[in-house]
Amino acid sequence: MDKILMAEVNISEGTDLDLIEQVKEAFLSVDGIEVVDIDSNKDHNRTVFTYKGCPDNVLEATKRLAKKAVELIDMTKHKGSHPRMGAVDVVPFIPVREMTTEDCVVIAKEFGKYLGSLGVPVYFYEDAQDKEYRKSLPKIRKGQYEGLEEKMKDEAWTPDEGPKEFNPKSGATVTGARFPLVAFNINLDTEDLEIGKEIVKSVRAAAGGYTFVRAIALALEEQKQVQVSMNMINYEKTPIHRVYETIKSEASRYNVNIVDTELVGPVPLAAIRDVLDFYIRISKNFSIDQVY
């Protein structure tokens, strides 16, 4: 069987449709790329491009995407509710078929070297990072774009690739290899961000919640809602339904209801299987092969 690699490229632009289309055209100029999902969020001011293919094609497509995004996006003008530190903010490479984590690390390192050659400071994370304190995306991105110039003056935060000086236009990029995560958002019928922050504490690892959940509360001003935005970094150890039920229960304490939820980007079938198991008590005889 052929090797299949997936990339999930997060860029800091979710409102300029013409710019987003130009970035899309850049990576689709590579043959053999299968688009899995493209998600643009105006409140986050962020777009996530998810695609897969053979490793060489995915790497080339990611280089072209990043080059176009760096060319078009000016971080000095960027505003958005989602944490970010660069025009090309984070680029994880994910094994899909016949790929090892080590294979993905090689791809991430080559991409990081290329992006660094374009004048963008690059940090490796997760399995592509040797230093333990720099493995976590939230730790690398702490302080966001606004705090990046000062952060880079600290030798502990010298970039792994690219210039060692702050790049005002492009910020910095984080890239690496990781286990397939589930980006799961829950939207609440309240405009009170403080309530959202209290609810987040029930699931966020750093606040004593679930070890494999990273979460923040964001204001969705157009919808007049608050969003609990989450990265579930290991759905096998912390399934979707457990997090959903916890937030539902905590929200009820404030007379707040769940309006709807969002799954951003691809979702492993195994994660959906867990949801089916919990909510409809599906038979153990059920097989994912029955899904078509």
Structure description:
By secondary structure, this protein is of the alpha+beta class. It is built from eight helices and ten strands. It has helices at 17-28, 55-72, 101-117, 137-141, 144-151, 193-200, 240-252, 269-280, and strands spanning 4-11, 34-41, 46-53, 88-97, 122-126, 173-177, 182-188, 213-220, 225-232, 258-264. A six-stranded mixed beta sheet has the order 2-3-1-4-6-5. Strands 8-9-7-10 form a four-stranded antiparallel beta sheet, with helices on one face. A hairpin with a 4-residue loop joins strand 8 (213-220) and strand 9. Helix 1 runs antiparallel to helix 2. It is globular and about 50 Å long. It starts with a strand and ends in a 12-residue tail after the last helix. The mean pLDDT is 93.
Helix content: 25-40%
Tertiary shape: globular
Radius of gyration from the CA trace? 19 Å
How many angstroms does the end-to-end distance come to? 21 Å
Mean pLDDT: 93
Strand content: 25-35%
Largest sheet: 6 strands, mixed
Strand order of the largest sheet: 2-3-1-4-6-5
Strand tally: 10
> Uncertain spans, ≥5 residues at pLDDT below 50?
none
- SSE succession: EHEEHEHEHHEEHEEHEH
Helix/sheet category:
alpha+beta
Total helical elements: 8
EC number: 2.1.2.5
Enzyme class: transferase
Subcellular location: Cytoplasm
Protein name: glutamate formimidoyltransferase
List key phrases describing it.
292 residues, alpha+beta, 10 strands, 25% strand
Summarize the structure.
By secondary structure, the protein is of the alpha+beta class.
